[in-house]
Amino acid sequence: MRVLMFSKDRKICDKESVAQKRMVEYGGLFDELHIVVLTKKNVEYRTLNVENVWIYPTNSLGIFFSLFDANRIGKRIIENLKLEIRNSCHDIVVTSQDPFETGFIGWLIARKFKLPLQLQVHTDFLNRYFSGESMKNKIRVFIAGRLIKKADCVRFVSARVRDSVISKFKIQSASWRTKFKILPIFIDAQKIKNAQSVSFPRQPDFTILWLGRLEREKNPLLALKVFSKVIRTIPNAELVIIGDGALRQCLKLQATRYKLQDRVLFTGWKDNIIGYYKNADVLLVTSLYEGYGMNMVEARIAGIPVVAPDVGVAKEIGAYIAKEYTTDSMSQMLIQLHSGSLPKSKEYQYPYKDKGEYLKLYKKSFERCL
Predict the structure, then answer these.
(1) Taking residues 306-322, what's their average pLDDT?
(2) Element holding 72 (H helix, E strand)
(3) Which residue among 53, 59, 156, 215 sits deepest, i.e. has the most Cβ atoms within 10 Å of its Cβ?
(4) Radius of gyration of the chain (CA)
(5) CA-CA distances (angstroms) from residue 224 to 48, 257, 276?
(6) 156 and 271, same domain (yes or no)
(7) Which domain, by its residues, includes 70?
């Protein structure tokens, strides 16, 4: 089987990145894996060949031009593959890592060459906060609704996102049961369980961990507001924020304004965050929306509870669900967790026993499209 993938993840072009290493692992499942990455010209990437994986950055002037460039590169790849396998397309699958821009390009290529199309949905795009962010996101929702119905198969990272799509677009049971598959990104559960804990500079009574990009959709300001209430009841508590992004300086100023600068630790981004779970008491999630929520899964595997709104896989992994996006709701839940008045969460069992089992399911998700 040969796979043509379209992606916007620029880390795939970086030889040192986890994303590229993951793609090389995926490439081992196929005869060939070709990945077209929509990138901007201000950071030029080179075309790469790693084992049987080929990576083609578009290096475009902007997102609008990247669509044309990706379409052009994709057509050239398929034409070359047809020559290589003597004009036969029976084992080629086109996949796109989102149902928006790359999904549209994947659909154009699949339609032109009469190939099966797989769409991957990693974002809870039907969440009201997603469409409310921008007009661009509203257009993306419109595009996704049409492309998902046209795709031969769709991979979702959580049941929540799948179910919202089924409900919103009124997809019949006979259709989605054959087309839709839930398969998140693999997490090495054994590695997390065996990891050594990482100590924090202070030894507080209650350590609240927050992980993620410091961007609006992750809502880190709410974490500060929640913590400002928690610390009134638990004076020796600490909030550890691991991540980076556009809101970092704003958050530091807010921490000072709330007089929390001695109780909030900004670590910046860490490549290896597993050890931090082991020394925390709880993971706090404040995201407006999540397609999956890898940090929540990792925290539960590491053995710590999660307090979160109803986003991503929060319910599926047994998180304590805050009913509202309010400081009162989330701070009260953290205080109750610290005092032991919340019922103990059940031990979480990660559904995949090892990477080999997961990779078989990953390959099967493509075979279903043929």
Answers:
(1) 93
(2) helix 63-84
(3) 156
(4) 22
(5) 42, 11, 19
(6) no
(7) 2-186+354-367
Do the domain assignments include residue 311?
A: yes
Residue 234: closest CA among 320, 344, 340, 346: 340
* Range from 85-89, 99-103, 160-164, 269-273 carrying the lowest mean pLDDT: 85-89
pLDDT of residue 87: 63
Task: State CA 182 to chain mean position distance.
Answer: 14
Regarding whether 212 and 88 lie in a shared domain, the answer is no
pLDDT in tens, 352-367: 888 999 999 999 999 9
Residue keyed to tokens 């049941």:
159
**Residues 6+ positions from 232 with CB-CB distance below 8 Å:** none
Q: Would you say how long the chain is, in residues?
A: 370
Asked if 136 and 120 sit in the same domain, the reply is yes
Whether 349 is covered by a domain: the verdict is: no
Q: How many domains does the chain have?
A: 2
Q: Tell me how crowded residue 23 is: count the other CB atoms within 10 A of its CB.
A: 21
Q: Which residues pair with 237 in a beta bridge?
A: 206
pLDDT tens-place string over residues 212-244: 999 999 999 999 999 999 999 999 999 999 999
Nearest to 312 by CA among 189, 224, 185: 185
| β-strand pairing of 53-57 with 92-96 | unpaired
